[in-house]
Amino acid sequence: MTKKVLRASLLAATCFVVPEILTVDAAAQNLPTLGDTSREELSPLMERRLGEQIMNVVRRDPDYMDDGPVSEYLNRLGNKMLDARPDARGEAAYDFEFFAVRDPVLNAFAFPGGFIGLHSGLILAAQSESELASVIGHEIGHVAQRHIARMLTSQKFDSLIPLAALALAVLAARTSPDAAIALATGGQGLAIQRQLNFSRDAEREADRVGFQILRDSGFDTSGMVSFFGRLQASMRNYTDNAPAYLRSHPLTSERIADIQARMLDQRYKQHADSLEFFLTKARVRVLQDATIQGLMDAKVFFEGQLKSEKDEDKIAAQYGLALVALKQFDFAAAHRWLDAAKSKTEKLTSQKIVLTTSSAYVSVAIDILMAEKRNEEAVAEAEKAMQLLPLSRGLVYQYVEALLSAKKTAAAGAFLRDQISLYRQDARLQNLLAKVYDAQGKQALQHIALAEAYAIQNTWTAALQQLEIARREKDAGFYEQSVIDAFEREWKEKHKEELADEKKHKRAM
Hints:
Layout: H1 3-9, H2 36-41, H3 44-58, H4 68-84, E1 97-101, E2 108-111, E3 115-119, H5 120-125, H6 129-144, H7 147-155, H8 160-172, H9 177-186, H10 200-216, H11 222-235, H12 244-248, H13 253-263, H14 275-288, H15 292-305, H16 311-327, H17 331-346, H18 354-357, H19 360-371, H20 375-388, H21 393-405, H22 409-422, H23 427-439, H24 443-456, H25 460-472, H26 478-508
Parallel strand pairs: 1-3
Antiparallel strand pairs: 2-3
Helix pairs in contact: 1-8, 3-8, 4-6, 6-10, 6-11, 8-9, 11-13, 14-15, 14-16, 15-16, 16-17, 16-19, 17-19, 19-20, 19-21, 20-21, 21-22, 21-23, 22-23, 23-24, 24-25, 24-26, 25-26
């Protein structure tokens, strides 16, 4: 990847694990607001749209960790922090989305508009929930302070489309420099960017905001010190081939001392780690590398963890071994380890709440039943779980997959249509509905559902292509043709409006 392409790519997102610390008065409670300049260059609405454009491609990246229990945990953790400081959502009151990607490098990043990603390596490196929360708080700070908009104000980048494309090019460089260049020049691609050499002022602002959020949401602020201290120690193992974020944001003793100084005026607040934190780490360890060797390594790790004196470690190890056994098609062992983890959790008074608030256990149980082709039992298990956890999106998807495996396409279709009426912007629901129609032999409706999935992602060309395919299907009757015509008119107009907005934005820049 050329330096020119890389430099431009780095404009697209903020990516910092290692902040520079600015000592501030603990009494400063309010998050600062920005002046009018950044709003003129990139409005909060356009900033959100830019983030969504990038995320539409990120979600198609094979390294995007599309896992229900992991996503639900990260979003509960992130939103708990935002609930403590609602002003961090900014003037546009963004609905933040927190997600994980498969990457052993310790890193995290923020896209404009409230999208925050965490590398699997960072999640595994966090030894406490407060350490993980300290990184999330820092990334929230970047979004709250609208650093992308402010950077664009000074850079005068000429449009949103090349910006999104260049953002995506960075991750492609991880596997193919040639592909990265093609993405940067062609305007499409696959990815999450690796790094951003952001300004000192932006880092300081994000640190201050992150510290306030960490403190106000009840986490131990010393988690920042311990986590960054380990990062500093890890740098000694690197030479000139150190990861770029370590070169761009070197850790120093002074920076860690600044965090400690900031903590002096704070009353010590101990935070008890949730069991879900340990279960999520175990899950991420397996999902990070599902190769034969990766599973063997995970199994060795969990077997060693079983010897820990800490109940949470033992439970997480049993849970992890259940996941490994499932991936290795040893279903008897998977059941045995999962039952052991649940049994031990039920006896742990301080942590057994996870059985009724998290989908971690039941998600694995459903997966095991489906892998064993016990589809009717999987459907029953999913139905029972959804009554307990009605807001779990991961269980919704698993339930539909179980219904499809059990060949209950009519029930799956009815359920999906109800869900779509509640969650209009969920492209995955439309894709599942397309699978239902395919199983029922309803080809026109299948392509209409696929078209709606693309439209939700603002991928208008693909959406219109699917409508054209649907129009030519033999089973496209009067109703289907009417739907196609209506969608075609609506989407062409929306596409036209978006192009006009982009041209207007380009002239303003």
